[in-house]
Amino acid sequence: MIDGSLPRLEFWCDLQCPDCRTALDDVRALRARYGDALPVEVRHFPLEKHKHAYAAAEAAEEAFAQGLGWPFVEALLARTEELDARGQQVLLEVARAVGVDAEEVDTALIDGRHMLTVDADQAEGRAIGVTGTPTYVIGGQRLDGGQSQDGLRDRIVAAIEAAAGS
Predict the structure, then answer these.
(1) Which residues contact 163 (CB under 8 A, 6 or more apart)?
(2) What is the pTM (predicted TM-score) of this model?
(3) Cα separations in angstroms, 42 against 58, 85, 92, 110, 165
(4) Residue 2 lies in a domain
(5) b/e map of 139-152 (b: 16 or more CB within 10 Å)?
(6) Which residues make Cβ contacts (< 8 Å) with residue 92, sequence separation at least 6?
(7) What is the pLDDT of residues 109-165, one digit of tens each?
(8) Considering the domain boundaries, does residue 1 fall inside one?
(9) Torsion-angle region of residue 99: left (phi > 0), alpha (psi -120 to 50) or beta?
(10) d(CA 86, CA 12)
């Protein structure tokens, strides 16, 4: 284990992206390695090519507001193909499956209460050079996994350890 506090890991994600689904294995491995000492934050970067990604990001924010964000994100990423085919129906099914109030998710999608959060994430992502997903930011360093995820986990571990001063 590393002495000192660990930097926050930002996981820039499109919840309809098959590459983000694959990247979830790296996130799980990092969380298993560092436990609660490594804060991992989902940041939304819905890509235009994924027609349900923006709504998925809004639904995820509602799940986080209900305290079940990570279970929702993980369950939704496991169903990216279904999300592409069936859209909002899948968002509500996933919400129910993980214990999120699906009616509240539906209402949140209608009233747009999480639009500003998703818009702010997208704007910040563009400002720091995020162009695709998955992308990680750790200790101020941006690591792009959108083209290739080969060796990415090792690079994230090196960045965590460097930032923590091990």
Answers:
(1) 6, 7, 138, 139, 140
(2) 0.91
(3) 12, 24, 20, 22, 24
(4) no
(5) eeeebbbbeebeeb
(6) 102, 105, 106
(7) 999 999 999 999 999 999 999 999 999 999 888 988 766 677 788 888 888 888 777
(8) no
(9) left
(10) 24
Asked whether the beta carbons of 55 and 10 are under 8 A apart, the reply is: no
- List the beta bridge partners of residue 41: 10
Hunting for tokens 């999608």 — which residue is that?
109
Domain count, the chain: 1
Q: What is the CATH number of the domain that holds 135?
A: 3.40.30.10
| Alpha-carbon distances, residue 89 vs 20, 72, 96, 102 (angstroms) | 21, 14, 11, 10
Domain that holds residue 121: 9-164
What's the first-to-final CA gap in the chain, in angstroms? 9
* Model pLDDT for residues 67-107, shown as the tens digit of each residue: 999 999 999 999 999 998 999 999 999 999 999 999 999 99
Residues paired with 144 in a beta bridge:
135
Helix (H, G, I), strand (E, B) or coil at 14: coil
CB distance 144 to 18 below 8 Å: no
